[in-house]
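Sample entry (311 residues):
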Amino acid sequence: MKILIVAEHDNKDLKPSTLSCITAAKQIDTNIELLILGFNCDAVIQNASKISGLKKIKFINNEDFKHQIAEDLTQPIMNIVKDAKYTHVMSPSGTFGKNLLPRISALLDVQQISDITQVIDHETFERPIYAGNAMLKVKSTDKIKVVTVRGTCFEQALLDGNVDVEEIKFTTNNSEKVKFLKHELSESDRPELTSAKIVISGGRGMQNGDNFKLLEGIADKLGAAVGASRAAVDAGFVPNDWQVGQTGKIVAPDLYIAVGISGAIQHIAGIKDSKFIVAINKDEEAPIFNFSDYGLVGDLFEVLPKLEEKL
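Predicted structure, serialized as tokens:
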């Protein structure tokens, strides 16, 4: 068997989800190669060359790959997969992987296996269905398995190796009718939601966006990331990239604090792997309490200032 992992990065840093994807791949076979497609991403390559357990790193340096657009990345990946005869193509199950790998599976004429949480063997995997209410065991007999990996379910690979790096030349084919317009990036001194050890999220109960400052004060003291439920995002309280849940970001921190969140099953699906869940809600019958390790029934506008004062 031979596994190709398509790295998720921003031309500066290798995303932790890629390290988790490598750990998942090791449970299939040890013949693992990492593919990095980017532009002026020497720091990413240098960091990746230290990953334990990789056989080789392949990279293509091309200005057209600067913005990591799936339509631009598809053709070089297809060329490499067909030439090297890989048995598995894998990538993290984030926005990057969910956008890219369906194109690869369609062109290979195979069925994608999405968001795996466990590797049973080289052709059998476990993944959540029905918003995480049930786990499905999937067996694929396709010649090439195309798989996205839920990074929160696997430990990150160690950075104690020394991997050979091979550069691949690729001439861009400009047949795709896709043009990059702009990239809007929210910058914050707080940790990223998907990698934070502590996350505090607000829901519709926050009432408006200004009230999220109550969460931000606590987050700054705890070194936490700030998230939100879909209801809060849809109401326009906070940006889309704060959304936690099945249709947002999947998180698995050591501590998750849910404030003013009722606990819709779609939200629970995105936080259920957290080590400890704490809920603050004035409705004692809110479903979130059924999934919480600790719960506090109270008015968040009274509780949060007191909590911040105690920290």
